[in-house]
Amino acid sequence: MSVRLKHGREKPLLRRHPWVMSGSIDSTKTAVSGDVVAVLNSQGKLLGYGDYDAESQIRVRMHHFTDSVPEEEVWLRARLEDAYAQRETHPLLQRTNAFRWVNAEADGLPGLTVDRYADWVVVKASTPAMQRRTSMIAEVITQRVKPDGIYIRGDAASVAPAEAISIDEHGREYWIDLKSGQKTGFYLDQRDARELFRELAAGTSALDLFAYSGGFAAAALQGGAKSAVAVDSSYDAIELLKRNAAEAEAVGTDVNEFLRQETKNFDLISVDPPPFAKRKRDVDAACRAYKDLNLRTFKRANPGAHILTFTCSHHISAELFRKVIAGAALDAGREVEFLRPLSAPVDHPVSSAHPEGEYLKGLLVRVRS
Ligand code: SAH
After folding, report:
1. Catalytic, out of 112, 241, 312, 344
2. Domains, the chain
């Protein structure tokens, strides 16, 4: 089973970029989705091995740039254990019992995410090859951490806990719905930003826009906010939010609607929308949407307010996002400054060979006047 690349298309692979796009492939020999294929350059020289997916534009996801591949169980186990060891002892992950154990390409396991939530583990396999390996993966997880249970998303035979389970992040208890929650149940990628929100919260009136289960609102209340308002349009999210941030005012409505009607101002605001640009061609429309949203948000900020604003669109770069926010401030007639860039925490590493792995970018903004 092999694929042969078109002339000149091996360059990204020589830099260890893990994706072979369908347009780079000249011919394919006997491969079906889920196979491990040898990847050859146009002259037939072996470049490495990866997982084949006939349905995806990303036709092969590389996991070995070597002459041969060890037995599957051996390399899977090694990579899962290495990823776990890095998180388990990482100084920045000692105050949480929930973290991303495997971050796909960045951990040498393309198409796989594994999240640990206290005594539960959630596995999400997004390629046929990883789906084929889930029982092997579950076996390694069981041996490594002996969890109460492993929930494999998208596998009809896998059983999620009947009730919400709770995790402890920096002394806050969050209830999580593993079965029908968003992501794998919780936005682990906003842990650092929630911590910052807590640090900035003392004495403030806080506003958590796109609150999901109340992650930011709960952090603000823990940090001594005078009040917290949390807005999300999902009914299920609001139910969890009431549990996670009981003191917050939960508003189950569309954020744009909320911002159109609200007349109060706030001292601390998080703006954490879903990705507006899912595809490259959506970037312009998405920029307008981010601008509108942030413009309306700036209008609700007290002078001196801190705003944490985010995009989780792969296709919007940090630089572009900064321009959009600058434009929003200008149109809102506010003078603002950028205090620091924000990104996902250390359990969501980005491989230097695979910049596409970065999706979450944010800014800590201060409204001067
Ligand atoms: N800040 C959250 C994660 C937010 S994810 C955390 O740290 O956990 C984005 C959320 O936006 C989802 O919960 C989704 O239900 C909500 N959402 C999407 N579009 C919305 C809209 N137009 N108005 C209000 N909420 C929206």
Report:
1. 312
2. 2-64 (2.30.130.10), 72-153 (3.30.750.80), 187-367 (3.40.50.150)
Query: CB-based contacts of 235: which residues, under 8 Å, 6+ apart?
Result: 252
Strands 266-271 and 149-152: unpaired
Q: What is the pTM of this model?
A: 0.96
Over the stretch 237-270, which tens digit does the pLDDT of each residue have? 999 999 999 999 999 999 999 999 999 999 999 9
CB 39 within 8 A of CB 50: yes
Tell me the Cα Rg of the chain.
Answer: 22
In tens, the pLDDT along 9-41 reads: 999 999 999 999 999 999 999 999 999 999 999
Ligand 1 closest atom vs CA 254: 23
CB within 8 Å of 326: residues ≥ 6 apart: 336
Q: Which atom of ligand 1 is nearest to the CA of 274?
A: 9
Q: How far is the CA of 340 from the centre of ligand 1 (A)?
A: 23
